[in-house]
Amino acid sequence: MTQLDRRITPVRPDLAAEKLRGQVDAPRFAEPRPMRLVTPAAWIRRSPTPDAPADTQALFGEHFDAYEITDEGWAWGQLATDGYVGWMSAEALAPAAEPTHRVAVLRTFVYPGPSIKITPSEAISIGSRIVVERLQGAFAVTASGGFIFADHLAPLDAAEDDFVAVAERFVGVPYLWGGRTSLGLDCSGLVQLSLAASGRKCPRDSDMQEAGLGEPVADWEAEPLRRGDFVFWKGHIGVMQDAERLLHANGTHMLVVSEPFAEARARILEKTGADVTSVRRLV
């Protein structure tokens, strides 16, 4: 049997998704319960405890297929956006609804009424998915009765022309392991969110991205790098802004930074002993 990646395969020793029947052994199988996130963001954890390690986040409005919801208030399932599997607080979830729009700016406020002078009820990040029921003046009114400045939203199928320009908006945002919001994100989260804004699906983790994004650039040291090239190290990814500068979220600066690629490469090599493993380019 092919080794399954448990990060993106909804299977546990005691339970598996019904869609995996015949592919995995499990004492019981479950159909998904379609849910959506109704908090600004929520951690997806490895086990159902608040201090369990978390590898990624779900964003407001993203769909989550719950295969189990426990009496203790935890949901185990799979995030529809990138297939990531884990545990989430069930309080963050509600029955699924089809979004119409997405947040197109780094972060926007949700107001309880049609005025920017009212204290916002929450703030939601780029990529969050919204069900807009109607427009009222300058505001989009959501299915839950919130008011969002309409110019901060884009139709769900709208796409940015330049994903690197999206990534550049994050410069100065803190590095956060597993993060996927404008309050904090990691290297692969930066790439994933930026590509999503340009209408491209992207795996969550850097090893998945190295295996699945674009095509390898065989002679990348012999020819100039291009804007949008992905540069990979073991466990890390950055995006070239041009032939010389690299944009990446990293643990050295604890920020998203733009810096000379040659300097970043030399520092990472000195610090970890690891050099670039590949460069990949979107076709």
UniProtKB/TrEMBL annotation:
Give the matching Gene3D superfamilies: endopeptidase domain like (from Nostoc punctiforme) (3.90.1720.10), SH3 Domains (2.30.30.40)
Which keywords has UniProt assigned to this entry?
Hydrolase, Protease, Thiol protease
UniProt entry tagged with the keyword Kinase = no
For this UniProt entry, the molecular function terms from Gene Ontology, in alphabetical order, are: cysteine-type peptidase activity
Similarity comment text for this entry: Belongs to the peptidase C40 family.
Q: What is this protein called?
A: Peptidase P60
Q: What is the lineage of its organism?
A: Bacteria, Pseudomonadati, Pseudomonadota, Alphaproteobacteria, Hyphomicrobiales
Which one GO biological process term can you cite for this protein? proteolysis
Supply the source organism for this entry. Answer: Alsobacter metallidurans
